[in-house]
Write a structure and sequence with these properties.
aminotransferase, globular, seven-stranded mixed β-sheet, Aspartate Aminotransferase, domain 2, AspAT/PAT-like, alpha/beta, about 15% strand, Aspartate Aminotransferase, domain 1, four-stranded antiparallel β-sheet, about 400 residues, Aminotransferase, 13 strands, 2 domains
Length: about 400
């Protein structure tokens, strides 16, 4: 096995070397070694990709669709994306100039950060939030400005955004909105977004809207998007990983104004050349004919949410009101203190239930843990039994 020359170690990009690894994934990897652990940690559906989607991709392979796709994506997929966004949000994007296929939303976030940020520029990130945002922004040379939303029921308010822009976030280039939220499951109303849009416009900013969980909203809530209000300023990021149980397919998309998309498509071509052919064809099938797939999945998740929520509340957890995605962000009962990392480790080691420490999601997450209910109903019920035992005996 080759060992790096000592003289070269100091020549590796120091910015990348000094970035911490994903704490969420590191924690999940560590507790995965515990025999019999029930992991309610990673946000990955336990469901399988629907058969008609798989068959569309198989047929594409059989038909020898095995050459480079266009750098922005295959026409069939981009047309399907536009049709889907039009039907779900009432917005329109030109598939030829305003859409781009990506390797999941993660790549989309990298593209957005690289396209928007010059070195040293700031971007507002409401927290708690998926921790990968911070590393992506820093790799692009930007500075993430965390805004703790815990005092406002985990939603960014116009007043808080304006206050931040007048102080530590002065001169920020953009703001990230994750809706529905990971880790809290909170959902922005139409009125919330309209008020935020006014501040974004007043301060002449971009909005980066991560809507990967848009199809997974429960009760009488409905998904709205900044693209419906300020499309000229909004970069929409989404994909099929969560709603269609396609995490391993790695397929997403970016939508935005053509002038900005020129840069984003250019970055995409440098990063990946193009997204895999058959994956795009399978994704097109999902968007065109898969409405019943995510409706059925949503019903399962809603049932699991009810079971987990009731079980946690009986054990003294206070919850951020979960309205979408498939997470519960739960405040640790007072008797266990507020060290969420120690608590999550203890819960995993003593009763073999995995929950992600809230502090891994940034400011405002301290004293909380995130439970994912993208797991079987059987696992969730057993996890509640174990949590009850832990609560009663510690």
């Amino acid at each position: 096995m080759p060992k790096l020359a000592k003289s070269l170690n100091a020549k590796i990009n120091t910015k990348i070397k000094n970035l911490p690894n994903s704490a969420i994934r590191s924690f999940n990897q560590r507790i995965s070694t515990i025999p019999g652990i029930i992991k309610l940690t990673i946000g990955e559906p336990d469901l399988n990709t629907p058969e008609h989607i798989k068959q569309a991709a198989i047929n594409d392979i059989t038909n020898d669709d095995s050459h480079y796709a266009p750098e922005a994506g295959k026409k069939k997929y981009l047309k399907a994306v536009n049709k889907y966004l039009n039907q779900s949000l009432g917005v329109n994007y030109d598939p030829a100039t305003e859409l781009c296929a990506t390797v999941g939303v993660s790549e989309g976030l990298n593209i957005a950060a690289m396209a928007l940020l010059n070195p040293g520029e700031k971007i507002i990130v409401p927290t708690p939030v998926w921790g990968v945002y911070f590393g992506i922004i820093e790799m692009a040379g930007g500075i993430p400005i965390q805004v703790d939303t815990s005092a406002d029921n985990f939603l960014l308010t116009p007043a808080k955004l304006k206050e931040t822009l007048e102080n530590e976030g002065k001169g920020a280039k953009a703001v990230v909105i994750t809706d529905p939220s990971n880790p809290t499951g909170r959902v922005y109303s139409k009125e919330n977004l309209a008020e935020l849009a006014q501040v974004i416009t007043d301060y002449d900013m971009f909005a980066v809207s991560d809507e990967i969980y848009a199809e997974l909203i429960y009760g009488d809530k409905k998904h709205y998007s900044l693209t419906q209000i300020i499309p000229e300023r909004t970069v929409l990021l989404s994909g099929l990983s969560k709603s269609f149980a396609m995490t391993g397919w790695r397929i997403g998309y970016i939508a935005g104004p053509a002038e900005l998309m020129k840069s984003m498509i250019k970055i995409n071509s440098f990063l990946i050349s193009s997204v895999t052919d058959n994956v795009q064809i399978g994704a097109a099938e999902a968007l065109e004919n898969g409405e019943q797939d995510y409706i059925a999945a949503r019903a399962k998740y809603q049932r699991r949410l009810q079971i987990l929520q009731e079980g946690l509340e009986k054990n003294g957890y206070t919850l951020a009101t979960p309205e979408g995605a498939f997470y519960i962000f739960a405040k640790i009962p007072a008797k266990f203190g507020c060290d969420d990392v120690a608590f999550a480790n203890d819960l995993a080691e003593k009763v073999k239930v995995g929950a992600t420490p809230g502090s891994y999601f940034g400011a405002g997450g301290q004293g909380y843990v995130r439970f994912s209910y993208a797991s079987s109903e059987e696992n969730i019920k057993e996890a509640i039994k174990r949590i009850t035992s832990y609560t009663e005996n510690n």
